[in-house]
Amino acid sequence: MKRVAAIDCGTNSVRLLISDISDDSGMSDVTRQMRIVRLGEGVDQTGRLAPAAIERTRVALAEYAKDIAEAGVDAARMVATSASRDAENAADFRAMVFDTLGFVPEVITGDEEARLSFAGAVRGLTAEAPFLVVDIGGGSTEFVVGSAEVDAAISVDIGCVRMTERHLRADPPTPDQVAAAEADITAAVDMALAAVDGTRARTLVGLAGSVTTVAALALGLPEYDPKRIHRSTITAADVAKVTAGLLAESAAKRLEHPVMHPGRADVIGAGALILRIIVERSGADSVIASESDILDGIALSLA
């Protein structure tokens, strides 16, 4: 058995998974944690990581460093994605991570991000292949098609934080803002689906907080419950209904939903809109929400 620590640092959140991995029993979680740090705040406009965002991330990573040390892991890997790829001052971020964790983060390509997400998402999945796996992040969305292995992958710069900052600035967003976001997202989704031949997939699988939050709302859960959300099937009609409701609400109103994470309320409308358009343009009649994602893929890569 090998104990590993995986850290996924995205545009909106930084997450930790400590897991025991063995050949016969697979993966067994020791802990999963998430902090909303909004590392990519303002990157779409400025091209730089804000000092305050780097500091928020440092605080979260310092807490994770203690957990990793106490767990006695055999190997650790941190992956940094969209915001860190885009920022002019990414070197400042990498230096902070080294000072905090004692090892450097891997600022991976969108293609590698997509492949890690796919590995985590399809592990043990019994639905009909080929799969179209979509990982809706804060700054980018990854599209991956494959069965046991990846056939094609692409990352495009649409994410819940990026689209909120670019288009959905009012609270709640205006109809014109929603229309502009829809046009932007649709163009990117159509390009991505063509690049990976996404319409040939038999099963659509959605990853990350925007998808799982939409699933929790569609299921009418009284609280966020990963076990009930994981691999639940949400119809296209329910995705559209939840999305319309979220886009009509203010951030304060969204916080009244018991499943809503406080750090997601202001950007969930954009995330839901991305999911709705992916469902529509791919021709899927439903989406499977998965709690297993790039974090699991990072852990598996250490086995």
Account of the 3D structure:
Helix 5 packs across helix 13 and helix 8 (209-219) crosses helix 12 (268-282). Strand 2 (13-22) and strand 3 form a beta hairpin. The protein folds into two domains: 2-108, ATPase, nucleotide binding domain (Nucleotidyltransferase, domain 5, 2-Layer Sandwich); 121-294, Nucleotidyltransferase, domain 5 (2-Layer Sandwich), CATH 3.30.420.150. The protein has helices spanning 43-46, 51-71, 82-86, 90-101, 110-122, 160-166, 175-196, 209-219, 226-229, 236-248, 251-254, 268-282, 294-301; strands at residues 2-9, 13-22, 26-36, 75-80, 106-107, 131-136, 141-146, 150-156, 203-207, 232-235, 286-290. A six-stranded mixed β-sheet has the order 8-7-6-9-11-10, sandwiched between helices. Strands 3-2-1-4-5 form a five-stranded mixed β-sheet, sandwiched between helices. The mean pLDDT is 92. The protein is globular, with a radius of gyration of 18 Å. With 303 residues, the protein is α/β, with parallel strands linked by helices.
Summarize the structure.
Residues 18-301 form the Ppx/GppA phosphatase N-terminal domain. This protein has 303 residues and is an alpha/beta fold.
Features of the shown structure:
single chain; 6-stranded mixed sheet; 13 helices; 303 residues; Nucleotidyltransferase, domain 5; globular; 5-stranded mixed sheet; alpha/beta; 2 domains
Q: What sort of overall outline do the alpha carbons produce when their principal axes are compared?
A: globular
Kindly identify the CATH topology of the largest domain: Nucleotidyltransferase, domain 5
Unreliable spans: none
Helix content percent band? 40-55%
Going by CATH, the architecture of the largest domain would be 2-Layer Sandwich
CA radius of gyration is 18 Å
Oligomeric status: single chain
Given the structure, what is the number of helices?
13
Strand order of the biggest β-sheet: 8-7-6-9-11-10
Question: Superfamily at the CATH H level of the largest domain?
Answer: Exopolyphosphatase. Domain 2
Instruction: Determine and state the CATH class of the largest domain.
Output: Alpha Beta
Strand content: 15-25%
Distance between the termini: 9 Å
